[in-house]
Queue: 3 jobs
Job 1
Amino acid sequence: MKRFDLRFIFAVAMALTAWQGSVASEPLRYKLPEETAKLRDGTGVQVAQNTCVTCHSVDYIAIQPPKSGSAFWQAEVAKMRNVYKAAISDSDAKIVAEYLAQAY
């Protein structure tokens, strides 16, 4: 190939790389559907509303196996705190786990 051809190919490749970088750097935006589910009534519902629903929908709670019991919900709350680093205090974790075991 001639020297001119190589410079042209190099220039086109650099331009495409720069263009791809600018397109990829734009943030993705998602429009989430409006929340329609509500937490069931029960002792501790407000604490659960303030902790659980800040990260995921009520639907996620509702699809868990029904009547799973206290140990299941204690483990789920512990997972949210330890694995996903949810900011839930020890006292709130206990309230949430008890509420979920009773309500779900």
Job 2
Amino acid sequence: MGVDVVLMRVTRKGTSSKGRRLSQFAVVGDARDRAATIFRNSGKPMLARVDPYGDLILSSAEMEQFIAEAASLIAGANEADAAHLGQILELARRCRDDSGTELHFQGD
């Protein structure tokens, strides 16, 4: 039931969605279901969209809200969860700063 977080580079040839290509930049795995549990119990609207059984794609334009919500959880998290959130936040910041990327949340 883990949620892997993947930073993807999006390239397009022309305006057609058929020309859309994704390449993986970085991954934060979730073998211990940390992200799935943290997001599910967060009470935050953006984080609640993450589905442990499905996929969610967020654009760089959505990162400000995601970062604010995820960062607000670090203070109350245990050390392991805070470290995991920190890794996810690093990917989110990279996504925010590069409009040619997306953050993919891949549930089991």
Job 3
Amino acid sequence: MVKRVVLGTLAVFVAWSVLDMVFHSLILGPSYQATAHLWRPMEEMNMGGMYIVGFIAALLFTCFYTIAVNPKSFGNGVKFGMMFGLTTGFSMGFGTYIVMPITLIIAVVWFVGTVIESVVGGMLVGKIVKQDR
């Protein structure tokens, strides 16, 4: 099971990293430029730290699935990902919108992007992390 958790974590981390580039660079790049006063300049951002946080999040996501979901299956992985994404995406996107002057488009893309990333993560762990026999 440990090997599957490691493989699942790596798969989720890679998928989330790629999707983050799509959402944050391609889709939200212009919105971030328009609200540049809200963000650290690129040269002050800690990219290594961002990858560490992303890896730990992928590990925790995979561990939550491994511990909480039975039976382990592709379908249950998708359901887990959807619930995880709705919960975290709603609070991340709209919770931040309430307390910080981000645009509504940023809030919506953070919400939708988190749901998509979580469903993809659920699909991956559902396929990779199987029951021991």
